[in-house]
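Bench notes, afternoon.
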Amino acid sequence: MTSSAALSRAEAASLSPGERQDAMANIFVGHDRFTEAMDAIKRFHMPVNGGRPDAGAVGVLAGESRTGKSYALKMYAHDFPAYQGEDGMIRPVVYVDMPSEGGFRSVLQAVADALNVPHTKSMDNGTLDKLIRGALHAQRVQLLLLDEFQEVFDTSKKAMIAHGRGFLRKILNLGTLNILCAGLLQTYEQMAGDPQLTGRGNLPYKIIRPYGWANEDEKKLFRLLCDRFDDKLPFATRSGLRREAIAHRLHWVTNGNIGRLKTFIYQAGCLAINDASDQITTVHFAAAYDSIIPLGSKFHPFRDDMSRAPVPKEEKDRVEIAANGNALTKQVG
């Protein structure tokens, strides 16, 4: 696969259609939300620059889906690869994606697999739990990253929450590592209401938010983000994504969510490649929105004036949360 990042704009535009499609699908844009997430993870892992890893605390990285939490966690874990020690494998940072099905047993299996702990179907949960804790200690794990943790702390699964709480507490009792749980905003709310967890390091947290538009600083950051995407697109000319008229519409469609922004640009970009266009135009964005427009919607951001645009429900929810003084508006770090 050819990386368009190493090519000039003209060279990237001359790639085959499939290569250009891959280039768009694999675009990574460094942005302030990613930097915030990485810095928060680093401070939780190593609170003192040049110091030692912290241990015995649980923290939370929370935010809406597709705001870049998982990517940051994976990148951080990638910076601390496993290596062969004198007595076996050493895994300083371990990333685990929590399964959405299978109950607490599947959670244990996911953690065991990340640590390369062998297990069988006949093995009971207590034994597997003990093996996991033994591996965490033997492999000198400093930081355990548990992604999609809302699958464990789900109010509709009270038994799962009880098992998850006990699992975290037993690991923290080792006194050798920290645990960072990442998930939706509700994840923090559920964990913050549990004194058994807040008592383990005061539950430090970081909320990763989508970009706003009403705030001028947020608007500038979002337009800069659009510009960085534009800079990496495999087209002969820039698509003008930073222009306020275009960026405003992109923000409305994606609600300032970087994951959705990337997907929507990709969808419009595919249409532009099919048209042999030198850039993504509003015609392509309009056609891309046609395929995702909510049923019954009477507003089209790429055909109607933005003065007619309704406030997206998610934006209303964010305003309501801020107005109510919800704890999630208080960012740490």
